[in-house]
Design brief:
Length: 340
């Protein structure tokens, strides 16, 4: 049975007179730091001297230190930089300052799950993972709400690592929506699988395949874009609000019938077999090893695929159409520029 925690289950007072260092000031980092600050917690931000984010953090009223100094001063250290940079930063700047009695925290379990970071005995190791991009963590908090989150303890040296993690979750607003107890392994494996099979990999390839099928059959690219990408948000929003059945209730009977007869033709036993293999690769560490090696090699395959897809016809057509639709708040990504 799932174990959920809410406001009454978390004592924010556990963070009183304790300093929290937020390492990184990107999507999640800025949200955690600002939400904790607004919750009355003593927060510092750890950033390299060359970081362009230093000025942003200081302008928001936050104290900014080097990563090593932030880790040295803090009682709780939350690591919120990209997965592939965490081990190097940990070894260089955090491990020398991770004394017994401190807490090391994560918002994703990748580096613990795959043994890229092995904390010493005597420190608590926990995770609070909001199930939302950082800008939503901040936005919803400022409106008085919160986003759901996951909480896990990997190492409980103090005997109260879970209580402290829940206090942190309350500080960033997650207990307002509910926090689900999990493990580092479960969070990491399900998160990677969801991204690869459904949310990013699966959805992106489904969009491109549908678009290509229509234009190969002679239909206008603009019409194909609307049918295979633009309207996807409408369907996802309905699922978000009330699940798959609410989506089917909200669309036409024709669309619902098409759902029943066509869905299993596109997502069939071959697709499910591929999903199971993706999960196996995540569970046995194959994906992690390949991703770590890709980074060590300078991301050649990653950059090649990024360059290919940024010029895909669905992106070229979509760019033009979105410029004509200011109501969607269009965004444009320049070639060679990555995300957070």
């Amino acid at each position: 049975m799932a174990e959920l925690f809410y406001e009454n289950d978390a004592d924010l007072g556990r963070l009183a007179n304790r300093r929290i260092a937020i390492i990184g000031y990107g999507s999640q980092g800025h949200a955690h730091a600002l939400n904790l600050k607004d919750s009355g917690i003593d927060v510092v931000v750890g950033l390299p001297a060359s970081s362009a984010s230093r000025a942003k953090a200081e302008a928001a009223g936050l104290k900014v230190l080097s990563i090593a100094d932030a880790a040295r001063e803090a009682d709780i250290i939350m690591l919120l930089i990209p997965d592939t940079r965490q081990a190097e930063v940990y070894n260089e700047s955090i491990a020398p300052n991770l004394k017994p009695g401190k807490t090391l925290m994560f918002a994703h379990g990748f580096n613990i799950r795959y043994d890229q970071i092995v904390p010493p005995a005597g420190v608590d190791v926990s995770m609070v993972a909001p199930k939302s991009p950082g800008h939503r963590v901040r936005e919803v908090f400022t409106h008085g709400g919160g986003v759901p989150g996951l909480v896990a303890v990997h190492q409980d040296a103090s005997g109260h690592a879970m209580e402290d993690a829940l206090a942190y979750a309350r500080g960033i607003g997650c207990t307002r929506a509910g926090v689900l107890k999990t493990t580092f392994a479960e969070e990491t494996e399900t998160d990677l699988f969801g991204e690869q099979a459904v949310l990013c990999g699966g959805a992106a390839e489904l969009i491109k395949a549908g678009f290509e099928t229509l234009i190969d059959a002679g239909y206008q690219p603009e019409v194909a874009y609307f049918e295979c990408l633009h309207e996807l948000k409408l369907i996802v929003d309905l699922c978000y609000q009330g699940g798959i059945n609410y989506m089917r209730y909200s669309v036409s009977d024709t669309a619902e019938y098409g759902d029943y007869i066509a869905g299993t033709e596109v997502i069939n036993e071959s697709s499910r077999k591929a999903m199971k293999q993706l999960l196996t690769n995540i569970q046995d560490g194959t994906f992690a090893r390949n991703w770590i090696e890709e980074n060590r090699a300078g991301l050649p395959n990653f950059q090649k695929r990024r360059a290919q897809d940024i010029n895909h016809p669905v992106e070229v057509v979509g760019l033009k159409l979105r410029r004509m639709m200011p109501f969607v708040n269009p965004k444009e990504i320049k070639p060679g520029v990555g995300g957070a």
